[in-house]
Design brief:
Number of strands: 14
Largest sheet: 6 strands, mixed
Bound molecules: guanosine-5'-triphosphate, magnesium ion
Distance between the termini: 31 Å
Radius of gyration: 29 Å
Strand content: 15-25%
Helix content: 10-25%
CATH superfamily of the largest domain: P-loop containing nucleotide triphosphate hydrolases
CATH topology of the largest domain: Rossmann fold
CATH class of the largest domain: Alpha Beta
Strand order of the largest sheet: 10-11-9-12-13-14
Shape: rod-shaped
Number of helices: 6
CATH architecture of the largest domain: 3-Layer(aba) Sandwich
Structural class: alpha/beta
Number of domains: 2
Oligomer: single chain
Length: 322
């Protein structure tokens, strides 16, 4: 399942303890307790994998490493390691304690969300002419600790819908560098996948079946992602013996979930046409065209058949207002 809304607690590492120590060399009895190291920070970093919030499904508490304690022989402790957690781009990070909100929009973008605590000072630091043998040292301070809500806002321009096995993932992967899982069986893909075609974001929205809008299968959870897309690419497999039925099943689900979905601009693709007789393909396309004029044939293994999709995408990207 796609995890797209989680509440977690993130804490910076505690500062390392400062130490008490003395030089044992005769005639030189000064303090030598080193400082601790600061605690590590918690940093969120954007990546393209939209399933990355899955790591927060069960584990809710994360902390960066504590700073290390100083030595008794003047050495400072080392800094605690930062904890870098990867989150999908499009994640809105809300600090529930302060009310701050920030959206991570780019791959590699980093946001420090919980700073590590200050180091504790060792007794060397407290030396003074009036106090040559200070016994004082400090414990490190606790790091910042906040609760966060991470919410993934999918911001796709084009939603690929269709019954299982229609070829959605194949088309997404072919057009973009995405790695949506492909297989010759239903429900190969279990989570929406995104890919970028030049400036356009395409989303493979899997799992739609008859009854999705009533919660059957995986579909209803993903339908809300289609709500945000501008255009729908509706894929119907040419292998089907009743393409109109296949088409209507999906249309009915979209309509039932939210009538606004069925009003979106829709293109219909009769997919995998290389697998059937060209005459048969023509017939099937003709019947689909009666329901939607913007119906075309498609095959991901014949390049020519991809040209038309690319043309449509190019047109769409032209009027994408950024
Ligand atoms: N011959 C041929 N096979 C195709 C074409 N497109 C997809 N396939 C095959 O059809 C099967 C299903 O493709 P997928 O892309 O996994 O279909 P999907 O719609 O993502 O399926 P789910 O993830 O189960 O919803 C795979 O075996 C693909 O290799 C095509 O244009 N021609
Ligand atoms: Mg798939």
């Amino acid at each position: 399942m796609l995890v797209d809304d989680v509440t977690i607690k993130l804490s910076g590492g505690k500062g390392g303890r400062g130490m008490v120590g003395f030089n044992k060399t005769k005639g030189n009895l000064g303090p030598t307790g080193g400082n601790g190291g600061p605690g590590g920070d918690v940093i969120l970093e954007g990546i393209s994998d939209i399933s990355a919030l899955l790591q927060f499904r069960y584990k809710k508490d994360f902390a960066a490493e504590n700073g290390h304690q100083g030595t008794t022989r003047l050495r400072d402790g080392t800094r605690g390691e930062d904890l870098i957690l990867k989150v999908p781009t499009g994640t809105v990070v809300m600090n529930l304690d302060t009310g701050d909100a920030h959206e991570i929009t780019k791959e590699g973008e980093q946001l420090t969300v919980a700073k590590g605590g200050y180091r504790g000072r060792g007794n060397f630091h407290f030396r003074a002419s009036t106090n040559t043998t200070p016994m004082e040292s400090e414990a490190g301070e606790a790091g910042e600790s906040f609760s966060f809500r991470l919410e993934l806002k999918m911001i796709a321009d084009v939603g690929l819908v269709g019954l299982p096995n229609a070829g959605k993932s194949s088309l997404l992967n072919e057009l973009t560098g995405a790695h949506s899982k492909i297989g010759n069986y239903a429900f190969t893909t279990l989570e929406p996948h995104l890919g970028a075609y030049y400036g356009l974001i395409l989303a493979d929205v899997p799992g739609l079946i008859e009854g999705s809008s009533e919660g059957k299968g995986l579909g209803d959870k993903f339908l809300r992602h289609i709500e945000r897309t501008r255009v729908i690419f509706h894929l119907v497999s040419a292998e089907s013996d009743d393409v109109l039925r296949d088409y209507k099943i999906i249309r009915t689900e979209l309509e039932a979930y939210n009538p606004a979905l069925s009003k979106k601009d829709e293109y219909v693709f009769l997919t995998k046409v290389d697998l059937i007789d060209p005459k048969d393909a023509e017939k099937k396309l003709k019947s689909l065209k009666k329901l939607n004029k913007k119906s075309i044939m498609l095959s991901v293994i014949e390049d020519v058949k991809l040209d038309e999709v690319k043309k449509i995408l190019n047109e769409l990207s032209k009027d994408k207002k950024i």
